[in-house]
Amino acid sequence: MPFGDKARRSRRPVLPLARPGAGTKSVNSPLPLASISCAASPFSFSRSPEPKVWAVPMAWRAAAAVQLLFGQLSLFPLRLSGAGAQVGLDFELQQPQDKVSVTAGETLNLTCTMSGVGPTGTVKWLKGWGSGNETVYDQAVSFARVTRVVSESNTDFSIRIRDVRPEDAGTYYCVKFDKRVGSLDVFRRGKGTVVSVHAKPTPPVVSGPENRTGLGQRVPFTCTAGGFFPKEIDVKWFKGKDRISVQPPSITLGRTNSSYDMSSTAAVTLQEDDVRSQLVCEVRHSTLTTPLRGTYRLSKALRVSPSVSVVADVPSPVEVNKTVNFTCHVKRFYPGDVAVAWLENGMEIKVENISQPVETPRGLFELRSVVEVQATEEKNGSVFTCRVVHDAQDPVSGTATLWIAAPARGGSSDRTQADNDNLLLIYIVVGVVCTVLALLVAAILYLIRAKQSKGKSSPSARLHEPEKSSEATTQESDPNNLTYADLNFDRERKTIRRMVEMSQQSEYACIQTNRGPTGDDNLTYADLDMVHLSKAPRRPAPQPEEAGSEYASVQIPRK
């Protein structure tokens, strides 16, 4: 309630006062006093049911008759007696303001003064007239925003309304009531003051779409302001410093029917550069010294989808067991919240080094993610995918394929420097090993040769021919005088059975001697290397052979 809890309490409907008509004289009109005094008043006041005003036609007639009858020299002065004979005859109520304009939030002063003697009764200020009136001020009641300009005055009933609101607009009446027994009637009322409240519009508010919109789409934005009076208002739209052409605003009545609300719409096609742009809604009104502005950052309504690409740091094909880094470049996206995942042949793989989005000078974002792959033969032809989910939209992906190079077949033109170093090291090792082996073989051959030479120069077995006499030459040779040598030569590998059979056998070698000079020169030597000569039982001599042959038997014991 604008003026207080008791402001709406009206004891009874207040009816308008009718203008004085024929046969009825207004109480504000001058009333001539008669100089005749009567014991009882012959005048009576009557109340008209509608409008309720005091009428005294009989008193006027009586006074006129007395003046005509006695003249001014009458000895008996006429005097009206009774409570209502002279009350209100000179009463005046003045409400001089016809129209008053005030700005909402300011203080409104309404003037009402009275003169003369009036009936007993209160003075009120009413907003509106008739059954829908509202009590703004009452002498007997206090109101939160309404006070007397001159308190305790019996003639000045001007009021002051603080913090005027748009709903305070209307017509205000200053009313004097006459308190009678059991009733409260209107005695006088002012002509009324029309109050118009010039209300400033509320700061404009610009709203956009609930969800973000992609590039190239036309998006509506709305600017609203309310609570202003009068109705006329001007609205302009700007994108940055460029003005946007829009339709006139829609203006409707406000909540109190004494103010207005406004709504204006502008359609904008979003672009990539709008990340740092803003919309401006400018409102001009008669109550404003400077226009009001409402702003909206287009980045709140804009979505820029990212571009995704995957690049390997080593060009394909890649040598086996090389380490390859695949880098996912996510560029030119807004807002900055993204989710990045790596997949190998459709299966998600875990990646640790995912960087945070970085803002570019144009207001967009970019990001890099790297996955490290060992180029084994099993991964030949594997497809690596970088999948990016941005602003709850469908995923955007980039892919790259890993190809493994076949091993080189001759020629080292395609080898890298590292491979050449490895091969050189291998060659050095092989050369050293071969050199050692060659030296070892040479040493073995030398030892064998040395042993052979030692065998030739070792002590020899000297075979002596038995002394023969001259007469023995004519005799038959004695078989028991033969000398035998049992020589064991290299032979084929024998089985155990064969070795047993031959364990008791001896091998014979025929040593041919040529006849030479007599003496020691006729001795025949046999160089036996590492041969053990032992004496064995005499065996039957072989068949006689031609003269000049001698035999030596050498037995090699079996170990």
From TrEMBL:
Protein name in UniProt: Tyrosine-protein phosphatase non-receptor type substrate 1-like
Feature: compositional bias, Polar residues: 471-483
Gene: LOC115339154
Positions of transmembrane segments: 424-448
Region ranges (Disordered): 1-24, 456-483, 535-559
UniProt xrefs under PROSITE patterns: IG_LIKE (PS50835)
The entry's keywords: Disulfide bond, Glycoprotein, Immunoglobulin domain, Membrane, Signal, Transmembrane, Transmembrane helix
Key word Transmembrane present: yes
A matching Pfam family: V-set
Lineage: Eukaryota, Metazoa, Chordata, Craniata, Vertebrata
Residues annotated as domain Ig-like: 77-174, 203-299, 306-397
InterPro entries per record: Ig-like_CS_Receptor (IPR051755), Ig-like_dom (IPR007110), Ig-like_dom_sf (IPR036179), Ig-like_fold (IPR013783), Ig_C1-set (IPR003597), Ig_sub (IPR003599), Ig_V-set (IPR013106)
